[in-house]
User: What shape does this take?
Amino acid sequence: MDEQLLIHALKGLPVPAIQYFDSLGSTNDLALQWAAQGAPQGALVYAETQTAGRGRFDRRWFTPPAAALAFSLILRPDQLETRSLGLFSPLAGLAVALSFEQFGLSPQIKWPNDVLLDRKKVCGVLVEAVWQTDQVQALVIGIGINVASSAVPPAADLIYPATSLQDVLGSPPDRPRLLASVLQNLFTLRSTLSDPSFMQLWQDRLAFRGEWVQVQQPGQPPVIGQLQGVDSEGCLLLLAASGSQVTIRVGDVHLRPNDDSQPLGGRLC
Ligand code: BT5
Assistant: This one.
């Protein structure tokens, strides 16, 4: 997609400024700088390919040319929203999931925000913040979507199985239209962040419900339990084998299905 196509596709959306790149290190890196320099709410950084795309924990995100969507949206949370910053990751995942549903697909959200098709990862989300002392100045919502099959990295580079929209649909959908749809959903859903309806939309699409999963939190032993859902703050609820309920806060965690479908003996991430 060239810059003109991008601008045309986003007409009518509250995106007041766009930076387009044929090739860029990471759209999140540029958006963080731009946000710190005063980029307006809704400003967008888009790249056809990323040479240093980032996942969480500084992992790599693969974005080959013309095969994916890779973009970062700058939002400036209001007072109320700053109390639920953890919900912006699922907000992005949900916006993508709702767009996929327009193709008749049944996406699921691997808590808190990866989007899965056929239990394989098709989209990753990286939300980062610009802070000034203890105040959030801006959030950068980075989204990467595998559109064509060639966007999917070689299996050896993956920590979780991956797929693309082309793999599932048979042909790649129109990228400008998909981007516009995701942004539209994101803006619409943002106004419902504090509504029970938002949690319900998320809950209904939660992957692995009722299944045994393990959650790995940095520096802690893995937690294994049956996935029950999310609570009103977006925390993940697991039922441990002991019968006790475990609450996992939205944060930097790894979640995997527990291969043995049993409460014990789960594979480490
Ligand atoms: C994520 O991290 O899933 C967040 C990815 C966010 C990427 C977007 S693209 C636009 C914006 N600019 C950036 O620089 N980043 C954001 P995480 O959960 O840590 O997953 C990373 C792992 O996913 C890697 O270690 C690989 O195993 C795998 N991976 C890398 N590229 C992939 C791809 N295209 N599709 C599926 N899996 C991938």
Summary: The pocket of biotinyl-5-AMP is lined by residues 26-28, 50, 53-57, 59-62, 70-72, 114, 121, 124-126, 142-144, 146, 151-153, 157-159, 162 (CB under 6 Å).
